[in-house]
């Protein structure tokens, strides 16, 4: 206990006050357990941090959680590491166990956003079983619905300045000089995934595996469809309407 008091003494008052104010604001927010579903480029990554901050939720990305569990050498992390070292896929039970573990953190007290999981109906069933044992359930599944042809234009037009992470788009946010970063004048690159061929295979996997997950949750009346081709600002407004109802 003494060490934690010493640690607090070293935190600037402004930081401590802003954290207290954040917690007070969060205490009035309703609990939310959300799943974000949508194909690559549908805008989940843009909306997710806004939803997280607005509703004081934790963001559970399964890839990051697996890496964190492995690094922390938790019992499940050790199991996951052994599986990955054999070149095998980590089982659904193990991933759900790691989500269960992560949900116990104080930052997940008001609920969570799950992004990238569940990808299959079997995973959705296991997730629901685990939540059911805790007496909770998924409140809303936000379905970022968008036509494949719009995604192709969005994704294949993306260019990135590698060292800063600045992103451009040939149509929607072009650089001043084609192929060159506005600030440094260094060349822009296109990510390996941002090509029509890679997008096509990722979309095929999404339609085949993940669309049944949307149907599964639709039967539970928790799916809200968002028109993801709208501007990010309009999508944010639609998300707020859905989550306040």
From TrEMBL:
- The top EC class is transferase
Task: State what protein this is by name.
Answer: adenylate kinase
The molecular function terms in GO held by this entry are: AMP kinase activity; ATP binding
| Highest rank taxon of the organism | Eukaryota
Q: Does the keyword Nucleotide-binding feature in the UniProt annotation?
A: yes
Q: Where would I find the Adenylate kinase active site lid domain in this sequence?
A: 158-193
Which HAMAP family does this chain map to? Answer: Adenylate_kinase_Adk (MF_00235)
Q: Name one Pfam family in it.
A: ADK_lid
* EC number, as in UniProt: 2.7.4.3
Role of this protein? Catalyzes the reversible transfer of the terminal phosphate group between ATP and AMP. Plays an important role in cellular energy homeostasis and in adenine nucleotide metabolism.
What catalytic activity does the UniProt entry give for this protein?
AMP + ATP = 2 ADP
Taxonomy-wise, where does this protein's organism fall, top ranks first?
Eukaryota, Viridiplantae, Streptophyta, Embryophyta, Tracheophyta
Keywords in alphabetical order: Kinase, Nucleotide-binding, Transferase
InterPro entries documented for this protein = Adenyl_kin_sub (IPR006259), Adenylat/UMP-CMP_kin (IPR000850), Adenylat_kinase_CS (IPR033690), Adenylate_kinase_lid-dom (IPR007862), P-loop_NTPase (IPR027417)
Return the similarity comment: Belongs to the adenylate kinase family.
User: Keyword Nucleotide-binding: yes or no?
Assistant: yes
């Amino acid at each position: 206990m003494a060490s934690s008091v010493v640690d607090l003494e070293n935190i600037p008052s402004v930081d401590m006050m802003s954290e207290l104010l954040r917690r007070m604001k969060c205490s009035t927010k309703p609990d939310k357990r959300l799943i974000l579903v949508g194909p690559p480029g549908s805008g989940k990554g843009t909306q997710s941090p806004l939803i997280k901050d607005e509703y004081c939720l934790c963001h559970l990305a399964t890839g990051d959680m697996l890496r964190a569990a492995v690094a922390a050498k938790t019992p499940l992390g050790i199991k996951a590491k052994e599986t990955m070292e054999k070149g095998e896929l980590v089982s659904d039970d193990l991933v759900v166990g790691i989500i269960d573990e992560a949900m116990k953190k104080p930052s997940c007290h008001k609920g969570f956003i799950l992004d990238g999981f569940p990808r299959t109906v079997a995973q959705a069933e296991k997730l629901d079983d685990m939540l059911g044992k805790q007496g909770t359930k998924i409140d809303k599944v936000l379905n970022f619905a968008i036509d494949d042809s719009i995604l192709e234009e969005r994704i294949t037009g993306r260019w990135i300045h590698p060292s800063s992470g600045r992103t451009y788009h040939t149509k929607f946010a072009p650089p001043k000089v084609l192929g060159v970063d506005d600030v440094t004048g260094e060349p822009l690159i296109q990510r390996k995934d941002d090509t029509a061929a890679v997008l096509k295979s990722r979309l095929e996997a999404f339609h085949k595996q993940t669309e049944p997950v949307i149907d599964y949750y639709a039967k539970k009346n928790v799916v809200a469809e968002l028109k993801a081709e709208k501007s990010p600002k309009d999508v944010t407004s639609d998300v707020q309407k859905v989550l306040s109802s």
